[in-house]
């Protein structure tokens, strides 16, 4: 079996007869890394952050924080755009921040309005409601604020992390359906670790004025990245892999993936070093799940369930339309190429009832989205051949993904 990869001006063919067990050194958690970087900057800490993520988003953040410039181009890094916008708003000076064309079409109005309401001053340099931004950094008053909980949790986390340095702290009331709640709790736990006082009750978040206390920190592995290895085990005949630095009681919401993949034939054994995953019996005939708390796992489970011939009904996907691409449409388009007809409704539900169509064998487009590339590549284990366009996009969160595939038995050959 093999699949081909087109690195823009060349193609690679990856083939394997047999996968073999191995140890996969996953990337460190991007979510934790980027939050700790912001907290470190606010506390002016000299302590090192050990095992920091080596992905594009984190490298963009590092470059910005180490820069003497007043202008920042964060490329396609959505986390960096949201977090740095908040940090710069309370940092004295005049700043500009921009990104790729896709980033210039990702909404940021809710965050900008919130910061301005809390005493900041941010203007739009081009299109109303979108980057690039002009930021006039100053002390923030803080206070009480209502925010729609149905938007990206990164807006909420951005406000939370700078809140200890607001004159009156922050009392945030979230309205509507709250999505990606684990990311909010991850932010709160990290803030508490560094000495902030955060109180969360139902839909209310209260951050007391204060300061972060500098501390050393070790970043654990990324549970989102682990999902692709769970997927590979699920699609394989028999495979055992070790994934170091993953923990059962992780603050990462995507740790839930271990429990979900147990339904799809993957057993998790927790050790002092991390986890070991292996093949077991599939225990479900239909997968029904609300991904409102784990939206980054949706692509992985859509592809896996279809290839295992397990119908599904996945809800809570409303945030997928404002990710690196419209992931709802992307999944429908690309799964049809593999012969699977997905349906959607209410901009928040994807389902597959077993409908098939004739596969086109066309290359899979990634839409500048790292998770499209990583979720579709393992499909080669079931369909024998697949082409992935612009696989370099994995550098956004997992630069060594293709190398790690090779490590367990995939063979890479340059086609030219």
Descriptive overview:
- There is one protein chain.
- With 416 residues, the chain is α/β, with parallel strands linked by helices.
- It folds into two domains: 2-27 and 221-414, Enolpyruvate transferase domain (UDP-n-acetylglucosamine1-carboxyvinyl-transferase, Chain), CATH 3.65.10; 30-217, Enolpyruvate transferase domain (UDP-n-acetylglucosamine1-carboxyvinyl-transferase, Chain, Alpha-beta prism).
- 31% of the residues lie in helices and 22% in strands.
- It is built from 13 helices and 22 strands.
- The protein has helices at residues 30-43, 56-66, 78-89, 109-117, 153-162, 181-193, 223-235, 257-263, 298-307, 327-337, 370-376, 380-383, 401-407; strands at 2-6, 11-15, 22-23, 49-50, 71-73, 93-98, 121-124, 133-137, 143-148, 170-175, 198-201, 204-207, 217-218, 240-244, 266-270, 274-279, 287-290, 312-315, 343-345, 349-352, 387-389, 411-414.
- The strands form six sheets. A four-stranded mixed β-sheet has the order 21-1-2-22, with no helix packed on it. A four-stranded mixed β-sheet has the order 3-14-16-15.
- Strand 11 and strand 12 (204-207) form a beta hairpin.
- Helix 9 packs parallel to helix 11.
- The chain is globular and about 60 Å long.
Indicate the topology.
Elements: E1 2-6, E2 11-15, E3 22-23, H1 30-43, E4 49-50, H2 56-66, E5 71-73, H3 78-89, E6 93-98, H4 109-117, E7 121-124, E8 133-137, E9 143-148, H5 153-162, E10 170-175, H6 181-193, E11 198-201, E12 204-207, E13 217-218, H7 223-235, E14 240-244, H8 257-263, E15 266-270, E16 274-279, E17 287-290, H9 298-307, E18 312-315, H10 327-337, E19 343-345, E20 349-352, H11 370-376, H12 380-383, E21 387-389, H13 401-407, E22 411-414
């Amino acid at each position: 079996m093999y699949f081909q990869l087109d690195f823009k001006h060349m193609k690679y063919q990856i083939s394997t007869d047999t996968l073999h067990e191995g140890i996969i050194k996953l990337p460190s958690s991007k979510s934790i890394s980027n939050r700790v970087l912001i907290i470190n900057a606010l506390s002016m800490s000299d302590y090192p952050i050990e095992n920091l993520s080596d992905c594009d988003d984190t490298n963009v953040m590092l470059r910005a924080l180490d820069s003497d410039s007043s202008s920042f181009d964060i490329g396609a890094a959505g986390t960096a755009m949201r977090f740095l916008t908040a940090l710069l708003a309370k940092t004295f000076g005049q700043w500009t921040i921009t990104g790729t064309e896709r980033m210039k079409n990702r909404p940021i109005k809710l965050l900008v309005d919130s910061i301005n309401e809390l005493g900041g001053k941010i203007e739009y340099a081009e299109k109303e409601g979108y980057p690039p931004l002009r930021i006039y950094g100053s002390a923030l008053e803080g206070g009480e604020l209502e925010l729609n909980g149905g938007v990206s949790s990164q807006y909420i986390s951005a406000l939370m992390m700078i809140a200890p340095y607001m004159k009156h702290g922050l009392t945030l009331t979230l309205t509507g359906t709250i999505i990606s709640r684990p990311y909010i709790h991850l932010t709160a736990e990290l803030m508490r670790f560094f000495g902030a006082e955060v109180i969360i009750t139902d839909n209310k978040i209260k951050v007391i004025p204060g300061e972060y206390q500098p501390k050393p920190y070790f970043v654990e592995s990324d549970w989102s990245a682990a999902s692709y290895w769970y997927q590979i085990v699920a699609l394989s005949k028999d495979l055992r892999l070790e994934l170091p630095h993953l923990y059962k009681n992780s603050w990462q919401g995507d740790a839930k993936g271990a429990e979900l993949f147990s339904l799809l034939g993957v057993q998790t054994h927790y050790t002092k070093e991390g986890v070991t995953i292996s093949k077991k019996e599939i225990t479900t005939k239909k997968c029904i799940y609300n991904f409102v708390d784990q939206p980054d796992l949706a692509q992985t489970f859509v592809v896996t369930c279809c290839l295992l011939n397990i119908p599904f009904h996945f809800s809570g996907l409303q945030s997928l339309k404002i990710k690196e691409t419209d992931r709802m449409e992307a999944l429908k388009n690309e799964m049809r190429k593999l012969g699977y007809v997905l349906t959607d409704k209410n901009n928040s539900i994807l389902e597959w009832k077993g409908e098939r169509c004739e596969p086109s064998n066309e290359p899979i487009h990634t839409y500048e989205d790292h998770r499209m590339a990583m979720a579709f590549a393992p499909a080669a284990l079931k369909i024998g051949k697949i082409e992935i366009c612009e696989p370099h996009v994995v550098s956004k969160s997992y630069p060594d993904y293709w190398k790690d595939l090779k490590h367990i038995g995939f063979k890479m050959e340059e086609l030219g």
